[in-house]
Amino acid sequence: GVGSTWDRLVAGDCAVRALAAEDLRLTGDAAGRTLEQLPSRVFAAVPRGKGEAEFDEEAWTKDSRSISGFIAYALCAADEALRDANWLPSENEKKERTGVSIGGGIGSISDILDASQLIAENRLRRLSPFFIPKILINMASGHVSMKYGFQGPNHAAVTACATGAHSIGDATRMIQFGDADVMVAGGTESSIDALSIAGFSRLRALSTKYNSLPQASSRPFDCGRDGFVIGEGCGVMVLEALDHAMERGAKIYAEVRGYGMSGILRFHKRDGLLCH
Predict the structure, then answer these.
(1) Does domain 2-275 have CATH number 3.40.47.10?
(2) Does residue 238 sit in helix, strand or coil?
(3) What is the DSSP letter of 127?
(4) For the purposes of burial, counting CB atoms within 10 Å of the CB of 251, is it exposed (0-12), middle (13-18) or buried (19 or more)?
(5) 3-state SS class at 103
(6) Please, is 177 exposed, middle or buried when counting C-beta atoms within 10 Å of its C-beta (0-12, 13-18, 19+)?
(7) How far is CA 180 from CA 137, 142, 152, 261, in A?
Protein backbone atom coordinates (compact mmCIF):
# COMPACT_ATOMS: atom_id res chain seq x y z
CA GLY A 1 0.00 0.00 0.00
CA VAL A 2 0.89 3.68 -0.20
CA GLY A 3 1.73 4.01 3.48
CA SER A 4 4.22 1.15 3.71
CA THR A 5 5.75 2.00 0.32
CA TRP A 6 6.28 5.62 1.35
CA ASP A 7 7.85 4.57 4.64
CA ARG A 8 10.26 2.28 2.80
CA LEU A 9 11.19 5.05 0.35
CA VAL A 10 11.90 7.50 3.16
CA ALA A 11 13.97 4.87 4.97
CA GLY A 12 15.98 4.14 1.80
CA ASP A 13 14.87 0.51 1.78
CA CYS A 14 15.93 -1.19 -1.48
CA ALA A 15 13.72 -3.96 -2.88
CA VAL A 16 16.27 -5.23 -5.40
CA ARG A 17 17.58 -8.69 -4.56
CA ALA A 18 19.31 -11.69 -6.11
CA LEU A 19 17.26 -13.92 -8.38
CA ALA A 20 16.66 -17.48 -7.16
CA ALA A 21 15.43 -20.54 -9.04
CA GLU A 22 12.04 -20.46 -7.33
CA ASP A 23 11.44 -16.91 -8.61
CA LEU A 24 11.33 -18.13 -12.23
CA ARG A 25 7.97 -19.91 -11.87
CA LEU A 26 9.21 -23.10 -13.49
CA THR A 27 8.80 -26.66 -12.28
CA GLY A 28 11.39 -29.31 -11.52
CA ASP A 29 14.96 -29.00 -12.70
CA ALA A 30 14.03 -26.48 -15.39
CA ALA A 31 14.23 -23.58 -12.95
CA GLY A 32 17.80 -24.33 -11.89
CA ARG A 33 18.99 -24.94 -15.44
CA THR A 34 17.38 -21.72 -16.66
CA LEU A 35 18.85 -19.67 -13.82
CA GLU A 36 22.34 -20.84 -14.75
CA GLN A 37 21.86 -19.51 -18.29
CA LEU A 38 20.57 -16.06 -17.34
CA PRO A 39 23.22 -13.31 -17.50
CA SER A 40 21.13 -11.00 -15.30
CA ARG A 41 20.22 -12.33 -11.86
CA VAL A 42 18.84 -9.30 -10.04
CA PHE A 43 15.21 -8.19 -9.80
CA ALA A 44 12.74 -6.18 -7.73
CA ALA A 45 9.63 -8.07 -6.66
CA VAL A 46 6.54 -7.07 -4.74
CA PRO A 47 6.76 -8.66 -1.26
CA ARG A 48 4.14 -11.40 -1.06
CA GLY A 49 2.49 -12.75 2.04
CA LYS A 50 -0.17 -11.92 4.58
CA GLY A 51 1.85 -9.39 6.57
CA GLU A 52 1.02 -5.70 6.92
CA ALA A 53 3.46 -4.57 4.21
CA GLU A 54 2.99 -7.61 1.95
CA PHE A 55 0.73 -8.32 -1.01
CA ASP A 56 -1.81 -11.06 -0.33
CA GLU A 57 -2.37 -12.38 -3.86
CA GLU A 58 -5.07 -14.84 -2.79
CA ALA A 59 -7.26 -12.00 -1.54
CA TRP A 60 -7.43 -10.53 -5.05
CA THR A 61 -7.52 -13.68 -7.20
CA LYS A 62 -9.91 -15.96 -5.31
CA ASP A 63 -13.06 -14.52 -6.92
CA SER A 64 -12.07 -15.36 -10.50
CA ARG A 65 -9.85 -17.88 -12.26
CA SER A 66 -9.28 -15.28 -15.00
CA ILE A 67 -7.25 -12.99 -12.73
CA SER A 68 -3.47 -13.16 -13.16
CA GLY A 69 -0.77 -11.28 -11.28
CA PHE A 70 -0.83 -7.95 -13.12
CA ILE A 71 -4.64 -7.84 -12.90
CA ALA A 72 -4.52 -8.57 -9.16
CA TYR A 73 -2.07 -5.69 -8.68
CA ALA A 74 -4.43 -3.37 -10.55
CA LEU A 75 -7.41 -4.43 -8.44
CA CYS A 76 -5.49 -3.86 -5.22
CA ALA A 77 -4.07 -0.46 -6.22
CA ALA A 78 -7.38 0.75 -7.66
CA ASP A 79 -9.21 -0.21 -4.48
CA GLU A 80 -6.77 1.77 -2.33
CA ALA A 81 -6.93 4.77 -4.67
CA LEU A 82 -10.72 4.81 -4.77
CA ARG A 83 -11.04 4.53 -1.01
CA ASP A 84 -8.48 7.28 -0.48
CA ALA A 85 -10.37 9.48 -2.95
CA ASN A 86 -13.67 8.60 -1.26
CA TRP A 87 -15.13 7.71 -4.64
CA LEU A 88 -17.18 4.52 -4.39
CA PRO A 89 -20.44 5.70 -5.94
CA SER A 90 -23.65 3.71 -5.69
CA GLU A 91 -25.73 5.88 -8.04
CA ASN A 92 -25.93 4.64 -11.63
CA GLU A 93 -25.44 8.15 -13.01
CA LYS A 94 -22.08 8.49 -11.26
CA LYS A 95 -21.00 4.99 -12.29
CA GLU A 96 -21.83 5.82 -15.90
CA ARG A 97 -19.57 8.88 -15.65
CA THR A 98 -16.62 6.96 -14.16
CA GLY A 99 -14.09 5.25 -16.41
CA VAL A 100 -10.88 3.25 -16.10
CA SER A 101 -7.58 3.67 -17.95
CA ILE A 102 -5.04 1.13 -16.68
CA GLY A 103 -2.37 -0.17 -19.04
CA GLY A 104 0.47 -2.65 -18.94
CA GLY A 105 3.57 -3.64 -20.83
CA ILE A 106 3.55 -7.38 -21.49
CA GLY A 107 0.76 -8.86 -19.38
CA SER A 108 1.11 -12.34 -17.92
CA ILE A 109 4.03 -13.93 -19.77
CA SER A 110 4.21 -16.66 -17.11
CA ASP A 111 0.74 -17.88 -18.13
CA ILE A 112 1.81 -17.90 -21.78
CA LEU A 113 4.87 -19.95 -20.85
CA ASP A 114 2.75 -22.44 -18.91
CA ALA A 115 0.27 -22.76 -21.78
CA SER A 116 3.06 -23.32 -24.31
CA GLN A 117 4.45 -26.09 -22.14
CA LEU A 118 1.07 -27.85 -22.07
CA ILE A 119 0.91 -27.77 -25.87
CA ALA A 120 4.48 -29.06 -26.17
CA GLU A 121 3.54 -31.97 -23.91
CA ASN A 122 0.37 -32.78 -25.92
CA ARG A 123 -1.83 -31.76 -23.00
CA LEU A 124 -4.00 -29.20 -24.77
CA ARG A 125 -7.11 -30.30 -22.88
CA ARG A 126 -5.46 -29.11 -19.67
CA LEU A 127 -5.30 -25.55 -20.98
CA SER A 128 -7.52 -23.29 -18.89
CA PRO A 129 -10.52 -21.74 -20.68
CA PHE A 130 -9.54 -18.58 -18.82
CA PHE A 131 -6.11 -18.44 -20.46
CA ILE A 132 -6.94 -15.61 -22.88
CA PRO A 133 -8.69 -13.37 -20.30
CA LYS A 134 -5.69 -13.82 -17.99
CA ILE A 135 -3.16 -12.47 -20.50
CA LEU A 136 -5.06 -9.61 -22.17
CA ILE A 137 -3.75 -6.21 -21.03
CA ASN A 138 -7.20 -4.61 -21.15
CA MET A 139 -8.53 -7.05 -18.54
CA ALA A 140 -6.88 -5.03 -15.77
CA SER A 141 -9.19 -2.11 -16.60
CA GLY A 142 -11.99 -4.56 -17.28
CA HIS A 143 -11.87 -6.21 -13.86
CA VAL A 144 -11.68 -2.86 -12.06
CA SER A 145 -14.71 -1.65 -14.01
CA MET A 146 -16.65 -4.83 -13.30
CA LYS A 147 -15.85 -4.81 -9.59
CA TYR A 148 -17.18 -1.30 -9.03
CA GLY A 149 -19.76 -1.14 -11.81
CA PHE A 150 -18.04 1.68 -13.68
CA GLN A 151 -19.57 2.17 -17.12
CA GLY A 152 -17.52 5.06 -18.49
CA PRO A 153 -14.57 4.76 -20.91
CA ASN A 154 -12.58 1.54 -20.52
CA HIS A 155 -9.08 1.95 -21.88
CA ALA A 156 -5.71 0.17 -21.82
CA ALA A 157 -2.50 1.65 -23.20
CA VAL A 158 0.34 -0.72 -24.13
CA THR A 159 3.39 1.45 -24.73
CA ALA A 160 6.23 -0.19 -22.78
CA CYS A 161 7.87 2.22 -20.32
CA ALA A 162 5.50 5.06 -21.28
CA THR A 163 2.36 3.07 -20.47
CA GLY A 164 1.60 4.65 -17.10
CA ALA A 165 2.13 8.20 -18.38
CA HIS A 166 -0.02 7.53 -21.45
CA SER A 167 -2.76 6.01 -19.29
CA ILE A 168 -2.89 9.10 -17.09
CA GLY A 169 -2.68 11.50 -20.03
CA ASP A 170 -5.36 9.70 -22.02
CA ALA A 171 -7.61 9.64 -18.94
CA THR A 172 -7.10 13.38 -18.47
CA ARG A 173 -8.19 14.04 -22.05
CA MET A 174 -11.26 11.85 -21.63
CA ILE A 175 -12.34 14.11 -18.78
CA GLN A 176 -11.50 17.25 -20.77
CA PHE A 177 -13.48 15.97 -23.76
CA GLY A 178 -16.50 15.30 -21.55
CA ASP A 179 -16.40 11.51 -21.87
CA ALA A 180 -16.20 11.05 -18.08
CA ASP A 181 -16.26 12.99 -14.82
CA VAL A 182 -13.87 10.65 -12.99
CA MET A 183 -11.15 8.35 -14.33
CA VAL A 184 -9.21 5.63 -12.51
CA ALA A 185 -5.80 5.67 -14.20
CA GLY A 186 -2.41 3.98 -13.91
CA GLY A 187 -0.15 1.17 -14.99
CA THR A 188 0.48 -2.40 -13.84
CA GLU A 189 3.07 -5.09 -14.50
CA SER A 190 3.94 -8.57 -13.26
CA SER A 191 6.93 -9.75 -15.26
CA ILE A 192 9.08 -11.76 -12.88
CA ASP A 193 9.26 -15.05 -14.76
CA ALA A 194 11.77 -17.04 -16.79
CA LEU A 195 10.65 -15.95 -20.25
CA SER A 196 10.43 -12.22 -19.50
CA ILE A 197 13.86 -12.14 -17.87
CA ALA A 198 15.37 -14.28 -20.63
CA GLY A 199 13.86 -12.05 -23.30
CA PHE A 200 15.17 -8.81 -21.82
CA SER A 201 18.51 -10.49 -21.22
CA ARG A 202 18.79 -11.45 -24.89
CA LEU A 203 17.97 -7.84 -25.70
CA ARG A 204 20.96 -6.89 -23.53
CA ALA A 205 18.76 -4.48 -21.64
CA LEU A 206 19.28 -5.80 -18.10
CA SER A 207 22.06 -5.11 -15.63
CA THR A 208 24.60 -7.95 -15.42
CA LYS A 209 27.63 -6.47 -13.65
CA TYR A 210 26.13 -6.39 -10.18
CA ASN A 211 24.71 -9.89 -9.76
CA SER A 212 26.76 -10.29 -6.58
CA LEU A 213 25.68 -6.84 -5.33
CA PRO A 214 21.98 -6.65 -6.21
CA GLN A 215 21.26 -3.42 -4.35
CA ALA A 216 23.97 -1.63 -6.34
CA SER A 217 22.59 -2.66 -9.74
CA SER A 218 19.95 0.03 -10.29
CA ARG A 219 21.95 3.17 -11.18
CA PRO A 220 20.33 4.85 -14.22
CA PHE A 221 22.29 8.11 -13.96
CA ASP A 222 25.66 6.63 -13.00
CA CYS A 223 28.59 6.29 -15.40
CA GLY A 224 28.83 2.65 -14.32
CA ARG A 225 25.29 1.77 -15.36
CA ASP A 226 24.92 -1.31 -17.54
CA GLY A 227 21.18 -1.87 -17.88
CA PHE A 228 17.96 -1.71 -15.93
CA VAL A 229 16.65 -3.96 -13.16
CA ILE A 230 13.42 -5.78 -14.01
CA GLY A 231 10.67 -5.21 -11.49
CA GLU A 232 6.92 -5.35 -10.98
CA GLY A 233 4.10 -3.47 -9.32
CA CYS A 234 1.23 -1.11 -9.95
CA GLY A 235 0.35 2.54 -9.48
CA VAL A 236 -3.19 3.93 -9.76
CA MET A 237 -4.69 7.37 -9.17
CA VAL A 238 -8.15 8.92 -9.34
CA LEU A 239 -8.48 11.85 -11.74
CA GLU A 240 -11.31 14.37 -11.94
CA ALA A 241 -11.93 17.96 -13.01
CA LEU A 242 -11.01 20.60 -10.43
CA ASP A 243 -14.56 21.89 -10.01
CA HIS A 244 -15.84 18.32 -9.59
CA ALA A 245 -13.23 17.62 -6.91
CA MET A 246 -13.91 20.86 -5.03
CA GLU A 247 -17.66 20.40 -5.17
CA ARG A 248 -17.46 17.06 -3.39
CA GLY A 249 -14.62 18.04 -1.04
CA ALA A 250 -12.07 15.61 -2.44
CA LYS A 251 -8.44 15.48 -1.32
CA ILE A 252 -6.31 17.08 -4.03
CA TYR A 253 -2.70 15.90 -4.29
CA ALA A 254 -1.62 17.25 -7.67
CA GLU A 255 -2.75 18.81 -10.94
CA VAL A 256 -2.20 17.53 -14.49
CA ARG A 257 -1.09 20.69 -16.32
CA GLY A 258 -0.51 19.15 -19.73
CA TYR A 259 0.07 16.03 -21.76
CA GLY A 260 1.73 15.29 -25.06
CA MET A 261 2.92 12.34 -27.11
CA SER A 262 5.72 12.16 -29.66
CA GLY A 263 7.86 9.57 -31.37
CA ILE A 264 11.63 10.07 -31.49
CA LEU A 265 12.89 7.26 -33.67
CA ARG A 266 16.62 6.63 -33.90
CA PHE A 267 18.04 3.33 -35.09
CA HIS A 268 20.78 1.94 -37.29
CA LYS A 269 19.71 0.22 -40.48
CA ARG A 270 21.53 -2.88 -41.67
CA ASP A 271 23.55 -0.78 -44.14
CA GLY A 272 24.91 1.23 -41.22
CA LEU A 273 23.04 4.45 -41.99
CA LEU A 274 21.41 6.27 -39.09
CA CYS A 275 17.69 6.91 -39.39
CA HIS A 276 15.80 9.31 -37.18
Answers:
(1) yes
(2) strand
(3) S
(4) exposed
(5) strand
(6) exposed
(7) 21, 16, 6, 21
The pLDDT assigned to 269 comes to 54
Closest CA to 261 of 197, 166, 189: 166
Q: For 42, which DSSP code?
A: E
pTM: 0.93
Q: Calculate the alpha carbon distances from 54 to 1, 50, 57, 117, 118 in Å.
A: 8, 6, 9, 30, 31
* pLDDT, tens digit, 9 for 90 and up, residues 169-222: 999 999 999 999 999 999 999 999 999 999 999 999 999 999 999 999 999 999
**How big is the chain, counted in residues?**
276
Helix or strand holding residue 6 (H, E): helix 2-11
Q: Give the N- to C-terminal CA distance of the chain in Å, as an integer.
A: 41
Q: Give how far the C-alpha of residue 70 lies from the chain's centroid of Cα atoms, to the nearest Å.
A: 6
* Cα 173 off chain centre by: 22
Chain-centre distance for alpha carbon 235: 7
